[in-house]
Amino acid sequence: MNFEFTEEQVMLRDSVARYVQDDYDWDTRVAIANSETGIDRAKWQTFAELGWLSIPFAEEYGGFGGDAVDVMVVMEELGKGLVLEPYLATVLLYGGLLQKGGNPEQQAAQIPPIIDGSTLGAFAYLERQSRYEIADVKTTATADGDNFVLKGEKVVVFNGANADQLIVSARTSGAQSDEQGISLFLIPADAAGVERVSYRMMDGQRVANVVLNDVTVPASNLVGTQDAGHELIAAVVQEANLALAAEAIGIMQQLNAKTLEYTKTREQFGVAIGSFQALQHRMVDTFMSFEQAKSLLYRAVCALTDDQEDEVQAIHALRVMVDKAGKHIFGEAIQLHGGMGITDELDIGHYAKRLMMINTTFGNRDYHQAKFNALRYN
Amino acid sequence: MDTAFAPEDIAFREEVCAFFDSAYDDDIDARLNNPDPAVFQPAIIEWQKRLFERGWIAPGWPKEYGGTGWDDTKAFIFETERASRGIRDVIPFGLKMVGPVIYTFGTDEQKERFLPPILNSDEWWCQGYSEPGAGSDLAALKTRAVRDGDEYVVTGAKIWTSYAQFADWIFCLVRTSTEGKKQAGISFLLIDMKSPGIKINPIVSIDAHHSLNEVEFNEVRVPVANRIGEENQGWTYAKALLAHERTAIAGVADSKRTLEMIKHYASQEVNGGKRLIDDALFQQRLSDIEIDLMALEFTDLRVLASVAAGGAPGAESSLLKIKGTEMQQAVQELLMEVAGYYQGVLPGGPEADVLGHEFGTRAFKSYMYGRAATIYGGSNEVQKNIIAKAVLGL
Ligand SMILES: Cc1cc2nc3c(=O)[nH]c(=O)nc-3n(C[C@H](O)[C@H](O)[C@H](O)COP(=O)(O)OP(=O)(O)OC[C@H]3O[C@@H](n4cnc5c(N)ncnc54)[C@H](O)[C@@H]3O)c2cc1C
């Protein structure tokens, strides 16, 4: 048994941690969040130079060939700085679909520009009616000679406004909620018939609703097997869930550390509020929530990298725990900061909002708990 | 034991309903719920004026000062009908806070000068208690008022002052003495917000709106005639005011109203072919809250009954505040869950038809701002300290 990181992973972690600390301080983050695009392309270029964008990709395309632990290490540190650049959307979702499902031509053409930072990607999978059900797809793709014609609307597309390339889920057969019959298509964001409406989410992300007005792409833009897109999505989302949980753990750690520090320095009634036993116990509880969540993160990452039988269960369990622990921790962080915790200026509320968004991404607690229950007890 | 209201109270309820049916329409509802202060502020004044014209603007006030003279039961019925229709409460600073202090402890001149424009909403008040160093420990406040002839010279800073940007007047606790117990050196002043030396610095809150402020006082001159009661006795008046609010502080009717919204939207949202309202886990969450609310509604009524029978509300109001705010936060959180991804859409985004969603931003605003309910008005931790001491004798 060994819960230590390899030397390489320690170096990777330290490199991200140092960058976040030195080059992504709070004022920088606020300025980026308030900028037109909500991300900093120059920073993204630095990520490329530092090799972070290459992590999950195969070595033959210039990738690092990393595994889930490597991704976890990066995400945890990015979480601590609430980094806004679209690592999840571009590298893990868009890139993940290509890495796992693209054919060699697609991979050779599309993966190097992700790694060198020149292409930003997005995965458009949600629809107005779909809530957390990824198989609920109404957007259609109809074969037309050597082409497919896509029609429909995708919503809340992460990095949707800034992306150069989109991968879109569309129905090629089957009924609205069937897992069978979903296919994935690579679509340049500037293709004729693509209409994007961008808006800001509470965590600073720029997302977009993407309307597809008879967008025509060659059949060679099909990513993965026709009608079998759901399986590919599930595999990529599985890893994204782990990555999001790692990001959440980084955030929780920050919230606990900042709150602890605050209660040691904020004085009322002539003493530090951290000296009140009522508050001490509360902070012990948030500390334990964090440790429990971190344990499930490690459990899930081990299950995934060792290809254990219960890996799917472990990931659902993890997402349930992250939701629970996250709400507990950010709730206490705000409460114990008093009026300060309610301000937009302080970072606490922003950490909370990112946790809240993470808890809706690929399913909330009930969604994952229902899946867990079904796997475990049915 | 029974829960029936007396026939006269039932008749009163009908009267209240008839008024709301005629005076409250969709237009005022939309404007009152608009998060943009530029829209909301004139709307609430307009609504308060309608209540004033009906004679119902000040349920808690004695008749001689322009109140309704209602007993607690009638006030409770009125509050419940208001909240269950989703009608915003009045802005409390004048009507529920400083007004009662003025008619209880003020001079005749002060009553004449200040009460009428509070009742008809011509003057907007804000509350200047908290300071950067004095929150839960309010008596530690440092803003000082130094006597200079028939004026005080006030210097210091207040923080978290809600709606100071709209205010004509601010009521402040200030330090007039540093001798003896810190509670014993505090005075209660009414200060004109147009006085030279006042500066307002806006604070944006986590719901992405501006209601909070820091208010700086730099040698602001305030007539001694604007002091309430005796010098150094301000703490006593402020405490009396805290005990004043005793009906509907739990906000049960508001929470029930949000719960109805949750049920409405949850029967429209579909996940994997199943309506959210039919989902077993969701029902569990809903009923957990609903059962707690059913209990709280009766706790509220029990306190009401004991007050109506002449008891003092005392520390029970702490119980109602703690449980009430916990329930408010629980329903706000559940509404967020119903909104799914759309809970994260910031105000100012696309219109609902383009966005594809109706209530996410509203859920966001009420949830985020709702985090403050367990902090202001005496944090829930402080309320628990009160119950531990005053009720449990610990
Ligand atoms: C949205 C909002 C609106 C407000 N509007 C106004 C207004 O209009 N006018 C005004 O004067 N003020 C206003 N306030 C201020 C409010 O009353 C204070 O925030 C509140 O009194 C808490 O003080 P604080 O923020 O300094 O927190 P602190 O007192 O520093 O408390 C920090 C944390 O420590 C806990 N704590 C403190 N003491 C103890 C103890 N003895 N035991 C256990 N726990 C303890 C608190 O519960 C809290 O969780 C507003 C606040 C908010 C958030």
Per-chain topology:
The complex is a heterodimer of chains A (378) and B (394).
Chain A: H1 7-23, H2 26-34, H3 41-49, H4 68-80, H5 87-101, H6 104-115, E1 121-124, E2 140-144, E3 147-158, E4 165-171, E5 182-188, E6 194-200, E7 206-218, E8 222-223, H7 229-265, E9 267-268, E10 271-272, H8 277-305, H9 311-336, H10 348-358, H11 365-377
Parallel strand pairs in A: 1-4
Antiparallel strand pairs in A: 2-3, 3-7, 4-5, 5-8, 6-7, 9-10
Helix pairs in contact in A: 1-4, 4-7, 5-6, 5-7, 7-8, 7-9, 7-10, 8-9, 9-10, 9-11
Chain B: H1 7-23, H2 26-32, H3 37-54, H4 72-84, H5 92-105, H6 108-119, E1 125-128, E2 144-148, E3 151-159, E4 169-175, E5 186-192, E6 198-204, E7 210-223, E8 227-228, H7 234-244, H8 252-266, E9 270-271, E10 274-275, H9 280-308, H10 316-339, H11 352-355, H12 360-370, H13 380-391
Parallel strand pairs in B: 1-4
Antiparallel strand pairs in B: 2-3, 3-7, 4-5, 5-8, 6-7, 9-10
Helix pairs in contact in B: 1-4, 4-8, 5-6, 5-7, 8-9, 8-10, 9-10, 10-12, 10-13
Flavin-adenine dinucleotide sits between chains B (126-130, 135-136, 160-162, 212, 372, 375-376, 379, 381-382, 385) and A (266, 268-269, 273, 276, 278-279, 335-336, 338-339, 342).
GO molecular function (chain A): acyl-CoA dehydrogenase activity; flavin adenine dinucleotide binding
Cofactor (chain A): FAD
InterPro entries (chain A): Acyl-CoA_Oxase/DH_mid-dom, Acyl-CoA_Oxase/DH_mid-dom_sf, AcylCo_DH-like_C, AcylCo_DH/oxidase_C, AcylCoA_DH/ox_N, AcylCoA_DH/ox_N_sf, AcylCoA_DH/oxidase_NM_dom_sf
